[in-house]
């Protein structure tokens, strides 16, 4: 049984199943799918990744708190951000900006790994960090993340831990990452269009 089969069995939310309508990306489904990403870092099996996990969890909470406080105005991520902007607040919006950045780092790292079968995870994750989060991090945070990237397990061990038939797992991982990338880019584009991410 693969990691993705286990998530489905536990009724976990995968990005492949998040509802997207003309109003945007479903908030609760997206946040539940993001929580699955946090669990995925457990498979990397190193405490150095707790900094990444804690960052994701903290930002998921900020967005969820806003949704729970204003459910009727927060059905989609786009509606939530627009409503918070009207209220002259930025807590959840800032949380979402950083959550999207963390998820962008994740899909870039794993997509790079899939496309470069001879590359070790430490290199895939390091390159993805340079291409996503690094430019937003202070000189204090950068060394912590660089350490985490070096702490990646061997590629072979990681893919074995994902379980199941290797070919099937690669297809499942590819489909999952494709859905994740599409949703992150959609919400990031929306926020840039309306300047909701400015200064955050």
UniProtKB/TrEMBL annotation:
Transport listed as a keyword: yes
A Pfam match: GLTP
Keyword terms of this UniProt record: Transport
Domain Glycolipid transfer protein per the UniProt entry, residue ranges: 25-163
GO molecular function: ceramide 1-phosphate binding; ceramide 1-phosphate transfer activity
GO cellular component, one term: membrane
Keyword Disulfide bond recorded: no
UniProt-recorded name of the protein: Glycolipid transfer protein
